[in-house]
Design a protein that fits this description.
- It is a single chain.
- The protein is an alpha+beta fold.
- The chain has helices at 24-39, 44-51, 122-128; strands at residues 3-8, 54-64, 73-83, 87-96, 99-111.
- It has one domain (3-132): Roll (Thiol Ester Dehydrase, Chain A).
- It contains three helices and five strands; from the N terminus they run βααββββα.
- The chain has a five-stranded antiparallel sheet with strand order 1-3-4-5-2.
- The longest helix has 16 residues, at 24-39.
- The chain is elongated and about 45 Å long.
- It comes from Thioclava litoralis.
Length: 133
């Protein structure tokens, strides 16, 4: 089931042509992921403070399908595809009125304070992917 997070396009999000600057879609999906994790009861600041682990983007495959423009109301959709011991794979879309404007597959990894791969704790894994555990 997809988690949905609404976003409005502000003037600062657009380029000289008046469309959303391509890099801002990455910001939009980052916000969607952060809110998805929060909605599942995972406090990333507490996770870092208590365990020294953080999530980091390892890979993004993105498709820019149609432009969004100033003042558009968008929805960022986040869907879990797979989860392993130290990796999370997500599908994310940015939509306007149900039409997909941007689509991405994102791989997150869990890292420790030294920047090395770290297993996601069983508690966090249960929260992120309850249907898989």
């Amino acid at each position: 089931m997809a988690f949905e997070f609404p976003i409005r396009v502000y003037y600062e999000d657009t380029d000289l042509a008046g469309i959303v600057y391509y890099a801002n879609y990455l910001k939009f999906i980052e916000r969607g992921r952060s809110e998805w994790v929060r909605s599942l009861g995972v406090d990333q600041a507490r996770m870092k403070a208590e365990t020294g682990t953080v999530f980091a983007v390892r890979r993004v495959e993105a498709e820019y399908l149609k432009p969004a423009r100033y003042d558009d109301e968008l929805v960022v959709s986040t869907t879990l595809l797979a989860e392993t011991g130290a990796r999370i794979q997500l599908a994310q879309e940015v939509k306007r009125a149900g039409e997909v404007l941007f689509a991405a597959q994102v791989t997150l990894v869990c890292l420790n304070e030294a920047g090395a791969a770290q297993r996601i704790s069983a508690e966090i894994r249960r929260k992120l992917a309850p249907s898989l555990h």
